[in-house]
Amino acid sequence: MESVNIKKLAQLLNLSIATVSKALRDSYDISQETKDKVLALAKELNYQPNPHASFLRKQNSKTIAVIIPEIANNYFTLAINGIESVAQEKGYHVIIYLSHEDFHREVAFTKLLHTGRVDGVLISVSSTTTDYTHLHQLQDKGLPIVFFDRVCEHFNTVKVTTDDYQSAYLAASHLIEQGCKRIAHLAISQSLSIGSKRAKGYLQALQDNGITPAASLLIECTNDDEQDVKLIRDLLEQQQPDGIFAAIERYAIAGYELCDLLGLNIPGDVKIISFSNLQTASLLNPSLSTITQPAFEMGREAASMLLKKLEKKNFQLPDESIVIQSKLIARKSTMK
């Protein structure tokens, strides 16, 4: 079967090659009627864009980079699925860079991207990132950047997040409603926007319910599993909280394992709730109460905004935060 290219589509539709090319890119200066005709024929003839030819012609690679801190967290797995769903629809490839929570790896990745191998970047920064010079340098070179989940609040671009402060407030309030008085927070680095907002939401919920926050119950965990286990074990043995709010699911799972080791009953001795997109949360013993983030939707929204910038000449990424609501799902780990 003869391969179909833009020139062939143009001939069949009696349109110029430039018009067909713009229609396929959803350009603003092509009518919707023309776009529909071009897309319909392209689909009928199974037209496949050639990213290499596009790159040679316009120095566009039809590829976007996604920089994330980890892949074990179920949130990022779902977010990548959302990103991929949009990229596939628009004919873009996705390259994933994994920083492993290492600022220097993140910087090294951005230096690679200076070569023009991608058209834009989606990023969730590492927990050790406090300097954003490397990202400003990319933006200054004309490479569009969109943040999701872990964002730089003062960066002039789109930032897609969930309502971290309010969700944390609801999580701590839920533990209080279930009778908890000594509520610990297993916090992620507060240099991250999500870490700071979740800790503030937790503290505000305690204060609003007449509970004086105790510094000994706010534990800033690390990226070292062994050290985190020691921190959480010391918390359980020495501070004896009756409720735990975990900022990420890894800390909650460590809490489950340590409660089992120490002979503590969940939820009898200690109740646990966590930010988590763990699909098996309902199957844990006991089932884990969660703040479930709209990870797929957040990834999809971030990718949509980036590709809108890449596809539409007259569109500039606004300096705004797009907030998508999370959901509290109460299960047996916080029952009275």
Automatic annotation (TrEMBL):
CDD domains: HTH_LacI, PBP1_LacI_sugar_binding-like
UniProt xrefs under InterPro entries: HTH_LacI, Lambda_DNA-bd_dom_sf, Peripla_BP/Lac1_sug-bd_dom, Peripla_BP_I
Domain HTH lacI-type: 4-58
Keywords for this protein: DNA-binding, Transcription, Transcription regulation
Entry keyword Protein transport: no
Record PANTHER family: HTH-TYPE TRANSCRIPTIONAL REGULATOR GALS, LACI-RELATED TRANSCRIPTIONAL REPRESSOR
Protein name: LacI family transcriptional regulator
